[in-house]
Design brief:
This protein is of the alpha+beta class. The two termini are 60 Å apart. The protein contains 7 helices and 12 strands.
């Protein structure tokens, strides 16, 4: 009785896992049930019959070659931007360095700037690394709301294709289409644009590092959304290295410092090395 119960439990688990008997097996069992008169089987014969059913069930559950290939590809894509089981980490100093995996490439970052599995961050305006660096807890932003006093960099894989217009092209389109609300020069290195976007009613604020825009029309322009209470978030993204993009995020409170923030972001990214 106990043996039959275990077998039935295995059978139930297989069915719960989504496995089904092939139609032929089911038909054979059905035909056998109709053709054979009912008889009382011994515990051993019942157990053997159950074993045959379980064996047939498990055989039908084996993934096909195509399914195995599909799962392998899904796993490959999933592990492009994160460290997965079985990965062999490149040599690095575990005390001072952190390993990042972006787009299937290995990057070594200073641990004091590393944040999470694919990010970097530093405080602003002090430029202190996210861990506090050599200053420890003695820096101006310590204890404050992190999103409001930090510059966050998120690295991700990139297919090398530009999807849609660049930030500079979006500004040119807004001006050509009559959606430019205002444009001003705050100082020699910084322009501020305000545009009316087509997908919402509230305007968009753009901060342009004019000395840098020619070199990278995506990276040198950041877009910001301002709330009624004058708070908000600024974001931008650009291709940093072949196969790797960088997305930035920080509080609109620091938008006036955009040229200096952009320079510091570039400096921090240069601290990374490929392995």
């Amino acid at each position: 009785m106990k043996r039959s119960t275990k077998i039935l439990a295995i059978l139930a688990a297989g069915i719960a896992g989504g496995c089904k008997l092939p139609n032929r097996s089911a038909d054979r069992l059905s035909d056998s049930a109709r053709a054979s008169p009912p008889r009382r089987s011994t515990p051993m014969s019942g157990a053997r019959a159950a074993l045959f059913v379980v064996a047939g069930l498990l055989a039908g559950c084996q993934p096909s070659t195509e399914e195995k290939a599909q799962r392998a590809e899904e796993r490959r894509i999933e592990c492009l931007d994160k460290i997965c089981e079985g990965d062999v980490l490149p040599p690095h100093d575990t005390k001072t360095e952190a390993v990042l995996k972006i787009g299937g490439q290995w990057l070594i970052a200073p641990r004091q700037y590393a944040k999470g599995f694919a990010g970097l961050a530093f405080y602003w305006p002090s430029k202190t690394p996210v861990t506090g660096g050599d200053l420890g807890k003695v820096f101006p932003e310590f204890g404050k709301d992190f999103p409001k006093v930090s510059i966050q960099i998120f690295l991700r894989s990139h297919d090398g294709v530009m999807h849609g217009p660049s930030q500079a092209q979006r500004l040119q389109q807004a001006e050509a289409q009559g959606r430019l609300i205002s444009k001003s020069t705050q100082r020699a290195e910084l322009e501020v644009w305000q545009t009316q976007e087509t997908d919402r009613t509230d305007p968009e604020w753009w901060y342009v590092a004019t000395d840098q825009v020619a070199g990278n029309p995506n990276a040198a322009i950041v877009s910001c959304r301002k709330r009624v209470d004058s708070t908000g978030t600024c974001t931008t993204g650009f291709v940093w290295q072949p196969g790797i993009a960088a997305d930035l995020r920080f509080s609109i409170e620091h938008a006036g410092d955009w040229p200096e923030i952009y320079q510091e972001v570039r400096r921090v990214l240069q601290l990374l090395r490929k392995e």
